C-alpha cells in the first residue's frame, strides 16, 4: 500500500525543475516583448518625428505660462493641461526600500506647479494621509498648502486638483467640507459654462477641485467642488509602452472634440510595473514611454485627433513635457491648431 501511495503522489506532484524552467522561459519572453515594443516606439519616432502645431514654443517662465498666453485670450477648453500622475508621492514609503515601488514624482506638488504642471492627482485614505496603494505618506494638508502657496504667488494660472479616495480605503470623514474650508477663496464652482469661458472671466478664482469619494455624496452642480464625471480617462494596467501608446490613441479618438466637451478627458503617458515582471520599480518601467510624449502629440495631430487632446499626464514631469502642452495651447489660441 505504501509503495502504491508513493507512486501516485509522485505522478501528481510537479517537477520543480520543469516549473522553474517554465518561469524563466516566460520571463525571457516577457523581456523580449518589452524590448520589441520599446524598439517599435523608437522606430516610429525616427519615421514620424516630433513636429506638431506649437512644438517650437518655449515659455519664458513655466511658472506663469498661462499668463504669458494672455488670460483674456485663453479659453478653458483650449488648454492642453500638463498633469502629473500620483502627484504627491515624492516622499512615499521608505527611501531605497519601498519608495522605488510607489514613487511617481520626485518634486513636491508646489515644485510641480512652479515647473508648469496644471493638473494634480492625489489619492487619500480615511486618516487624510496621501497614499498610493498600501503605502501612505504625508497629510493631504501638505498638498493643500502647496496649492495655496502657488496660487498666492501667481495671478492667472488655473489649476485642476483631483482628489480621490484610494481603492480599498474609506472616505475621510467630512472631507468635502474640509476641502472647501481650506481652498474656498480659490474654488471655481461646478458649472459646465466654465469650459467656454476665458481665464480672465474666471478670475480671481483659479482652482477646479474634483472630489471623487467612494461612498460620500458626490458634489452637485453649483457647489464649490466638481464631481468625478468631470475628469475622465481610460487607464489600462500595462507595462508595455507601445500597447499603452496605442490604447491612448484609440480611446482619445472616441472622445468628442474639446470645443464640444463638457468634461476634462485625461491621457496618461505612463506605464505600470506588473507583478509577473522582474522590474517592479516605477522609474525604469515608466521610462519606457516617458520620452515619447511629443511623438504622441505629433501622431495625434497626424491622425486628425488634435482637437481632442486635453489633459496629458506623466510620471516624473519635466520642462519639455510642459513646453509641449503649452505649445499646443498657444497654437489653439492663435488658430493654427
Mean pLDDT over the full residue set: 94
**Weakly predicted, low-confidence segments:** 1-11
Can you give the helix content as a percent range?
A: 25-40%
Which structural class should the secondary elements be placed in? alpha/beta
Terminal CA distance reads: 82 Å
Task: Summarize the main sheet.
Answer: 7 strands, parallel
Number of strands: 9
Taken in chain order, the helices and strands follow as HHHEHEEEHEHHEEHEHHEH
Overall shape: it is globular
Sheet-strand content, in percent, reads: 5-15%
How are the strands of the biggest sheet laid out side by side?
Answer: 6-5-2-1-9-8-7
- Count of alpha/pi helices: 11
Give the radius of gyration. Answer: 23 Å
Please provide a written account of the structure.
With 337 residues, the protein is an alpha/beta fold. 39% of the residues lie in helices and 13% in strands. The chain is built from eleven helices and nine strands. The strands form two sheets. Strands 6-5-2-1-9-8-7 form a seven-stranded parallel β-sheet. Strands 3-4 form a two-stranded antiparallel sheet. Helix 4 links the parallel strand 1 (81-84) and strand 2 (119-124). The protein is globular, with a radius of gyration of 23 Å. The chain starts with a helix and ends with a helix.
Summary?
It is built from 11 helices and 9 strands. It has about 325 residues and is an alpha/beta fold.
Amino acid at each position: 500500500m505504501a509503495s502504491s501511495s508513493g507512486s501516485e503522489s509522485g505522478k501528481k506532484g510537479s517537477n520543480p525543475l520543469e516549473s522553474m524552467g517554465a518561469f524563466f522561459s516566460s520571463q525571457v519572453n516577457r523581456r523580449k516583448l518589452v524590448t520589441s515594443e520599446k524598439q517599435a516606439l523608437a522606430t516610429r519616432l525616427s519615421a514620424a518625428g516630433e513636429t506638431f502645431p506649437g512644438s517650437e514654443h518655449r515659455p519664458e517662465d513655466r511658472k506663469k505660462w498661462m499668463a504669458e498666453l494672455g488670460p483674456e485670450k485663453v479659453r478653458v477648453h483650449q488648454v492642453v493641461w500638463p498633469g502629473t500622475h500620483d502627484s504627491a508621492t515624492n516622499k512615499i514609503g521608505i527611501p531605497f526600500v519601498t519608495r522605488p515601488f510607489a514613487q511617481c514624482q520626485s518634486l513636491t506638488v508646489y515644485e510641480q506647479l512652479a515647473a508648469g504642471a496644471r493638473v494634480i492627482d492625489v489619492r487619500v485614505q480615511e486618516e487624510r494621509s496621501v497614499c498610493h496603494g498600501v503605502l501612505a505618506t504625508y497629510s493631504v494638508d501638505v498638498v493643500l498648502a502647496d496649492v495655496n502657496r502657488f496660487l498666492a504667488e501667481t495671478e492667472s494660472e488655473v489649476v485642476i486638483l483631483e482628489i480621490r479616495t484610494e481603492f480599498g480605503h474609506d472616505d475621510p470623514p467630512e472631507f468635502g467640507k474640509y476641502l472647501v474650508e481650506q481652498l474656498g477663496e480659490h474654488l471655481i464652482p461646478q458649472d459646465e459654462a466654465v469650459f467656454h469661458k476665458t481665464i480672465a472671466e474666471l478670475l480671481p478664482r483659479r482652482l477646479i477641485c474634483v472630489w471623487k469619494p467612494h461612498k460620500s455624496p458626490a458634489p452637485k452642480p453649483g457647489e464649490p467642488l466638481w464631481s468625478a464625471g468631470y475628469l475622465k480617462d481610460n487607464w489600462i494596467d500595462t507595462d508595455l509602452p507601445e500597447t499603452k501608446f496605442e490604447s491612448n490613441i484609440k480611446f482619445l479618438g472616441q472622445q468628442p472634440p474639446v470645443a464640444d466637451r463638457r468634461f476634462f478627458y485625461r491621457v496618461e503617458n505612463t506605464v505600470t510595473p506588473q507583478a509577473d515582471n522582474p522590474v517592479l520599480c516605477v522609474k525604469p518601467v515608466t521610462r519606457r514611454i516617458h520620452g515619447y510624449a511629443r511623438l504622441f502629440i505629433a501622431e495625434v495631430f497626424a491622425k486628425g485627433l488634435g482637437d481632442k487632446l486635453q489633459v496629458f499626464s506623466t510620471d516624473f514631469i519635466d520642462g519639455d513635457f510642459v513646453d509641449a502642452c503649452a505649445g499646443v495651447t498657444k497654437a489653439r489660441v492663435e488658430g493654427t491648431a
